[in-house]
Amino acid sequence: MLLELKVENLALIDTLHLRFDRAQGDMLAVMTGETGAGKSIMMRAIGLLSGGRGSVQWIRSGAESCTVEALFEIGEHYQQLRDLLRDSGFGDANEILFKRVISQNGRSRFYINGSMATAKIVQDVCFRLLSIGGQHEHQQLLQPAMHLEFIDILGDHLAIRDQFRVRYEDWRSARQKLQNLVEREREREQRRDFLSFQIGEIDEIAPEIGEDERLGAERNRLKNGETLIRLSRECHELLAGSVTENLTVIRKNLEQLTQLDPELEELAAEVGSYSFLAEDYSAQLRSYSDALDNDPDRLETINARLDKLTGLKRKYGESLAEVLAYLENARQELEVLDNLDAEIEHQREKTDALEAEVVEAAETLSAARRRTAADMERAMSRELESLAFEQSGVEVRFQPVELHSDHLRATGFDRLEFFFAPNPGEPPRPLAQVASGGELSRLMLAFKCLLARRDMVETVIFDEVDAGVGGEAAESVARKIKELANHHQVICITHLPQIAARGSSHFRVEKKLREGRTITSVSRLKEDERVEELARMLAGESATNQTEAWARELLDKGKVAA
User: Fold this and answer.
1) What's the structural domain count of the chain?
2) Does 333 map to a domain?
């Protein structure tokens, strides 16, 4: 049950605080007011709390943000809702506080019991707490695509429908994988030949990691062989000639000097090492020059090998390491292709098993829907009769569909539409073709009553459910709403005095000027104020004493009406 509603800086509302009390009999709260007074703002506030889309344009001019809060009491029998709140980290309490804040920067925040929440969890919780019936829902009733949703909600099929959808998606995924494998099988021979060619090409050349770098260095030596031989031999001849001879003479002289003056021993040792190094360098240069090969045939062989390695890198990778990695992957893919028949057979068995499961689940869901549809047709006949529809009924027509996986959708096998016969003797036709505005309002009220009787929600909110209704039909709508309020909290925005008179509490929505600014205010009416408001609803601003007498009589009847 909705206990409190607070609104700040929403459109024309500055501040608003409404309280509803079960002990005071606030089970049917009616809201009335002149057209344009701001009754729609109340629905907007409830919609925001329920996770509806918000807009910064709704923030009152001059304010930084708008805020909507609602406090609900949770009945003991709402165990699923309690479990949802507890599992989502919002505790286990008898009351739940929603809060929605929309800021000028476009940021929107949700809170449950003071903790941040997502729009999704807010929508899930509100779905179990309250039902909103407005013009949007009336239009949904005309859309065949929504009729299946009505059946699933009424029959409490949402859980098994979600379970079916999981199986359906698993089956679709498995079927797609099988199709991909079969497609690969068609391309297998071509792909196998291609991979075999690539593997053979790489294997024939048999590259080694780093081989191209080694051959590149050798090619560079061969291309510059004459220069290398000439320069290395010149260096050898210089070292082997005067440089080595002079160092040898200097070394011997220093050895004699050290015998005369030990202070030169360190210098003599260093010069001696230079002498031996010069001899060693000379020998190395001689060996290097003698080993140099200026063979043009070898250069041609290296160039040919490098051309092959470059060709591999151009096709299969930027380096020989990548070429060899590609080779390994190609071998693995070829092995998979060789084993593709077994993989296809395994995937086909898996897909067939999932298909059997999903078809069985869809058949179970369809059977449950047909039972619900039959129950709904009987229940709607009773509801419509109490809403001044004589011998009228709603018929649920299922489109004939073969129970085969080819006809499966994410919602199952079923395609259905509601047909309606408002007048005796006339054949049922689609709702969109036959339902007038007033008839549609009463149909929606009948549907809401069916849902409420299943105890799916405790609070039902109607926005102008009386649209297009008058005369005896208006009286029947008023009785039905009063009847619904015997078991549920009902908040009803109405233009009908018959409904307003039956309210256990009555709120008037009106525009006022405060400090030069227009505001929308909502006030709880006392007995005399209710009479005045009902008189206004009956005769407008030209209400007379007689009109007020009718209003008081209407109010007295409303108090005792069933």
Assistant:
1) 1
2) yes
Q: What is the pLDDT of residues 287-296, one digit of tens each?
A: 777 667 666 7
Alpha-carbon distance 25 to 4, whole Å? 14
The residues pairing with 110 across neighbouring beta strands, listed in sequence order, are 100, 117
Q: DSSP letter string over 495-524?
A: S-HHHHHT-SEEEEEEEEEETTEEEEEEEE
| Dihedral angle computed from the Cα positions of residues 278, 279, 285 and 287, in that order, rounded to the nearest 10 degrees | -160
* Alpha carbons 154 and 163: distance in angstroms, whole number: 17
Question: In whole angstroms, how far apart are CA 399 and each of 51, 236, 329, 415?
Answer: 34, 102, 52, 5
- Measured distance CA(13)–CA(238) in Å, rounded: 105
Chain-centroid distance, C-alpha 449: 32
Burial of 113 (0-12, 13-18, 19+ CB in 10 A): middle
Secondary structure (3-state) at 353: helix
Count other Cβ atoms within 10 Å, centred on residue 44: 20
Question: Which helix (H) or strand (E) is 16 found in, with range?
Answer: strand 13-19
Going by C-beta distance under 8 Å and a sequence separation of 6 or more, which residues neighbour residue 230?
none
Proportion of the chain above pLDDT 70, given as a percent: 88
Range of the domain at 227: 188-338
- Give the CA-trace dihedral at 478, 482, 485, 487, to 10 degrees: -130
Query: How many residues can be counted in the chain?
Result: 562
Residue 91 lies in a domain: no
- CA distance to 158, 361, 504, per residue, from 411 (Å): 10, 11, 42
Alpha-carbon Rg of the chain, whole angstroms?
A: 45
Closest among 178, 130, 175 to 20, alpha carbons compared: 130
- Would you state the structure tokens that stand for residue 69, as one six-digit string? 């809060």
In a domain, 509, yes or no: no
- Rounded CA separation 426/134 (Å): 28
Beta bridge partners of 125: none
Which tens digit of pLDDT belongs to each residue from 143-170?
888 889 889 988 889 889 989 999 999 9
What tokens were used for 438? Answer: 């007033």
What are the beta bridge partners of residue 66?
Answer: 102
Cα separation, 450 vs 456, whole angstroms: 10
Within 8 A by CB and 6+ apart from 365, the residues are 157, 160, 161, 164, 412, 413, 414
Question: 189-202: per-residue pLDDT in tens?
Answer: 788 888 999 999 99
Query: Which segments of 79-157 does DSSP mark as H helices, in order?
Result: 79-87, 119-129, 135-141, 144-154
Which token pair is 399? Answer: 């489109």
Q: Would you say 127 and 85 are in contact if contact means Cβ atoms under 8 Å apart?
A: no
Collect all residues with Cβ–Cβ distance below 8 Å to 108 and sequence separation of at least 6: 54, 100, 101, 102
206: left (phi over 0), alpha (psi -120 to 50) or beta: left
Residue 216: inside a domain:
yes
Digit-coded pLDDT (tens) for 3-39:
999 999 998 888 989 998 876 667 899 999 887 777 7
Look up residue 7 and give its two tokens. 């609104």
